[in-house]
Amino acid sequence: MTGTKPKDAMDTTQSSLSNPLLYRRRKLVNGVGLTLSSASMALGLAALLWILWTLFYNGLSAFNADFFLSSTPAPGTEGGGLANAIVGSVLMVAFATLVATPIGILAGLYLAEFGATSRFASVTRFVTDIMLSAPSIVIGLFVYALAVATVKHFSGWAGSLALSLIAIPVVVRTTENMLQLVPGSLREAAFALGAPRWKVSLSVTLRAVRGGVVTGVLLAVARIIGETAPLLFTALNNQFFTADMSKPMANLPVVIYNFAMSPYENWQRLAWGGAALIALIVLGINIAARMLFRDKLQA
User: Fold this and answer.
1) Contact yes or no for 240/81 (Cβ under 8 A)
2) What is the pLDDT of residues 116-150, one digit of tens each?
3) What is this structure's pTM?
4) Residues 281 and 169 in one domain
5) What tens digit of pLDDT does each residue of 202-238 get?
6) Same domain membership, residue 27 and residue 116
7) For a 10 Å CB count at each end of the chain, is N or C smaller?
8) What domain range includes position 249?
9) Does one domain contain both 49 and 85?
10) Distance from the Cα of residue 100 to its chain's centroid
11) Angle at which helices 156-179 and 83-113 cross, to 10°
12) Alpha-carbon span 38 to 278, nearest angstrom
């Protein structure tokens, strides 16, 4: 059966060459497909470059010492910065990453190594896929009902919980997909040496794809760092600087949302600067993830 495929392909090519009309038609269809694909790619790149140019042109001009060292200004005043929002975002994203990373990696490890035929694993995959596609505002409302309405106040902890629920599915699916790429011969070699299954999973297979797992964690961070809707229902905002996670906490996405819709020119300038800062962070994380994953594949 396998030996007939090259012959069939050769026969098709010969029949096309023997029929000039069919050959010209196929060549025309191929040219039209390539032209449309190239035009679509050029259109997408043009739109992306236009967005990035507008964002960085308006946002980078807001970068100065006060932007990183001063808190958000009062309405109608000049100066100020986004120091409180930057610190709030860093704290909430950091705690969300600390929660999502071990849970996501261990869940992905279970799905790939122990749950191949388990019904519980199938349900877990289904729930994970739902959480991946669920709108972030739905997760924000869920955490609001769970951790805000019950205690009667907003908090950074609630915002961190909402972000972790968004990040966990990304880490789970990435870890599972990476572990499925490990060849079975590597596991068999470890089993032949007498290693128990849990040790093979942690010390052999997981170690072999640690670069891909780290990439998944970085992509999860890039996914949650710009989320606005969940934080509107959980952390809300705070005009003043605070590192107390039990109180309402400023964060970059919500501050950008509020400042961009305000009538004050200074607030709009800070909103552009905050948007440019998030774009630079996400761009840097994605570049680092791709470089790390590429290096691990080459190794």
Assistant:
1) no
2) 778 888 899 999 999 998 999 999 999 999 999 99
3) 0.85
4) yes
5) 889 998 888 889 888 998 999 999 999 999 999 999 9
6) no
7) N
8) 65-298
9) no
10) 13
11) 40
12) 30
